[in-house]
Amino acid sequence: MAIDHVLKLYSETIQSPYLHYGFWDNPESINSDLLSIEEIVKAQERYIEHLSSFIPKDVNKIIDVGCGVGGNAAYLKEKGYEIDVLSPDLYQKEFINKKFNGEMRFYKTKFEDFKSDTTYDLILESESACYIKINKGFSAANRVLRDGGYLLAADYFVFNSNNQSPHLKSSHRMDQYLNAAKSSGFKLLKEYDQTENTMPTLDAALNFINRFVFPTAEYLQNSIQRKNPKTYRLLKSLLEKRISKKMDQLDLMSSEEFRKYRKYMIYLFQKV
Ligand SMILES: C[S@@+](CC[C@H](N)C(=O)[O-])C[C@H]1O[C@@H](n2cnc3c(N)ncnc32)[C@H](O)[C@@H]1O
User: Fold this and answer.
1) Co-location of 123 and 94 in the same domain
2) Stretch 214-225: mean pLDDT
3) What pLDDT digit, counting tens, does each position of 83-99 carry?
C-alpha cells in the first residue's frame, strides 16, 4: 500500500494526531449535533488514556502497529514506554519522521510481513486489527513478542453476520478472531465493550455529512447542470454508479446500523 487516501483525508481535515473514534465517558449525555472538532480530539485523547490503562505493569517495550499519524505513540512515549511504530503507509511514514524529527523507529510494512530482531513486551493495535489478516497477524505477533508478552487490540468486530450489510466487509468476525487467537497460543486476559463510548463520534460525522457535504454537493450539481448541461450529463453518466455505491456505504456511518452488527471491543491477550 502506498497511501491510504481516506486516512490522509481524516488527518488533514480534522488535524488530530489520532485516527480513531475517541472515547466518550458519558455517551448518553452527548448531543452529537453540537460537537466541535476540539471536543472530538479531546475524546480521542481520552481513548488512548483509557486504552493504555489495560497495559500490564511488566511492559516496557511496545510496538504500535498501524500507528497512523503518531498520537498514540507520542502519548505512550510521554508515559515513559520505549516505543517503535509500524505502518505500510508512505504518507504516515513521512508524517511520523517529521513529527518526531526522525527519532521514532518506523517500520514501513504490513504487520503480516513484519520480521524483527527486537522482541517486544506488547503489541498495540489501536483500530488497526481489522486491517490485518487474522491468522497471519497472530503469526506475526508470535514472532515479535517475548514469551508472556501481550497483544492489546482495540477495534470493531462483527458479532452478527446474518445478511449482506456493508458492515460485514470492513471488520473481522468476532468469533473467528477469538478462535484464531486461541489456536495461535494467545490467552484472552481482559475484554471491554466500548461500543457506546465510541458512537457519538460516528453520529457527529454523519451529522456533518448531512448538514454540510450533501447540501454543498447538491449546490455544485445544480450549478453545473444550469451552466454547463453537456458536462453535467457526461459526469452523470461516468459517476452515477460510483456515487450510488458510496451512498450505500453511508450505512457504515449510522450508529444504529453499527450496533446491529458490530461491537467496538478492547481485547488484551497474552502469549502463552
Ligand atoms: C484507523 S487507522 C488507526 C491509526 C492509529 N492506530 C490510531 O489509533 O490513531 C489504521 C492504521 O492501520 C494501518 N494499517 C493498514 N493496514 C495495515 C497492515 N496490514 N498492517 C499494519 N498496519 C496497517 C493504517 O495505515 C493505519 O495506520
Assistant:
1) yes
2) 83
3) 999 999 999 999 999 99
Cα gap 34→23, rounded to integer Å: 17
Give the end-to-end CA distance of the chain in Å, rounded to a whole number: 32
Q: Judge if the beta carbon of residue 27 lies within 6 A of ligand 1.
A: no
The finding on whether 89 has its CB within 6 A of some atom of ligand 1 is yes
Is the Cβ atom of 93 under 6 angstroms away from ligand 1?
A: no
List pLDDT tens digits, range 143-186.
Answer: 999 999 999 999 999 998 776 777 677 799 999 999 999 999 99
Cβ–ligand 1 distance for 3 under 6 Å, the answer no
**Ligand 1 pocket test target in 128, 170, 171, 264 with most atoms within 8 Å of CB:** 128
Residue 254 confidence (pLDDT) above 90: no
Domain that holds residue 129: 5-198+262-271
pTM: 0.90
Judgement on whether residues 207 and 149 belong to the same structural domain of the protein: no
Looking at the fold, whether 51 and 170 belong to one and the same domain comes out as yes
Together in a domain, 145 and 244: no
